[in-house]
Design goal:
There is one protein chain. The protein is of the alpha/beta class. 23% of the residues lie in helices and 26% in strands. It is built from eleven helices and 17 strands. Strands 3, 4, 5, 8, 9, 16 and 17 form a seven-stranded mixed β-sheet that branches. A six-stranded parallel β-sheet has the order 12-11-10-13-14-15, covered by helices on one side. A two-stranded antiparallel ribbon has the order 1-2. Strand 1 and strand 2 form a beta hairpin. Helix 4 crosses helix 10. The two termini are 20 Å apart.
Length: 346
């Protein structure tokens, strides 16, 4: 086993503490990663604050992990010491069910093992990327292209795949009108992906404050949802709306902007339930859907696509001592657009 310094919270909403954990000894198919950077995801905050049900404390969050291979198990052939790699939201699955076999491990019927706040198949709790080291089975390690710096690559392991996967699944591309709700950590990447896929991209944000940034990321249009005429002007406009915000919306109002057979896809997860009228779906044969990140094969595809098209998150690097403050800033929407922890500051 190897010891690793980590940032952990002992209970819901408690401040972070610098502690030490033991990572398991390398199995034949394991990879030991020296973590260089770990992104902060809003889901880390929901979990650390106990907003998504009972968490496993002490908790070490983090599932946007980028680093360098330090050691490999005897059966590992895909990775070697010194490789630049990443780990996302999951660290294991059965590998045998229909979903695992088709590369959608996130839907594993046995139950996918999350990178943190989960129990592995031996019943041991998992600890995430706010850590100096992690041990992961090689099936759940991806390669970071050379043209992507490790700090900007880390948020792609969640924010990137969370937005890339539904845009691809619902066929964002030439001839399609796509709206992105929210211009935050997820939204600013969604705009870049939808643009690179060839869609006509509209950003729907509460105010006009981020218009110039949205246009620079590739948006064709920008509307403030707080303006009383926006929903009327955009009625029956879009083939696909990707909702990236973690706040409750007026679902009926957003559904009204879909064309016949249009789909509103949720990747943001508010802590309270949403409501909507059935007729908002029935009258135009619209769909309301959700999407959960992507499988390992698609995550690698997303990284390669990002490198090919120059897609990168806009980040603010912080030290390990700034994580509590960063959480509060995320809640105030005071970040452009993703915090990344420099793990060398532990």
């Amino acid at each position: 086993m190897c010891k690793s310094h980590v940032l952990s919270v002992p209970s819901a909403k408690a401040p972070f503490e610098k502690t030490t954990i033991e990572r398991r000894a390398l199995r034949p198919d394991d990879v030991l990663i020296d973590i260089k950077f770990s992104g902060i995801c809003h889901s880390d905050i929901h979990t650390a604050f106990g907003e998504w049900g009972e968490a496993i404390f002490p908790l070490v969050p983090g599932h946007e992990i980028a680093g360098v291979v330090e050691a490999v198990g005897s059966a590992v052939t895909k990775f070697a010491v010194g490789d630049r790699v990443g780990v996302g939201c999951f660290v294991d699955s059965c590998g045998e069910c229909e979903y695992c076999l088709r590369g959608e491990e996130q839907f594993c019927t046995k139950g996918v093992v999350s990178t943190y706040n989960s129990l592995d198949y031996d019943g041991q709790p998992t600890y995430g990327g706010y850590s100096q080291k992690i041990v992961v089975t090689d099936r759940f390690v991806v390669r970071v292209p050379d043209s992507l710096e490790l700090d900007v690559a880390s948020p792609l392991l969640c924010a990137g795949i969370t937005t890339y996967s539904p845009l691809k699944h619902w066929n964002a591309g030439p001839g399609k009108k796509v709206a992105i709700v929210g211009m935050g950590g997820l939204g600013h990447l969604a705009v870049q992906y939808a643009h690179a896929m060839g869609a006509e991209v509209t950003v729907l944000s509460q105010s006009m404050n981020k218009k110039e940034e949205a246009l620079a990321f590739g948006a064709d249009h920008y509307y403030a949802t707080s303006h009383p005429d926006t929903f009327k002007e955009l009625a029956n406009r879009f083939d696909l709306i990707l909702n990236t915000v973690s706040a409750n919306l007026n679902v009926d109002a957003y559904l009204s902007m879909l064309r016949v057979d249009g789909t509103l896809v949720n990747v943001g997860a508010p802590s309270e339930p949403d409501t909507y009228q059935a007729f908002s779906l029935i009258m135009q044969r619209r769909s309301l859907a959700g999407s959960l990140v992507g499988g390992i094969r698609e995550t690698q595809e997303m990284l390669d696509f990002s490198a090919e098209h120059g897609i990168k998150p806009q980040i603010e690097r912080i030290s390990a001592d700034q994580v509590d403050e960063a959480y509060q800033r995320v809640l105030r929407s005071d970040v452009r657009y993703r915090f990344v922890i420099d793990m060398s500051t532990m």
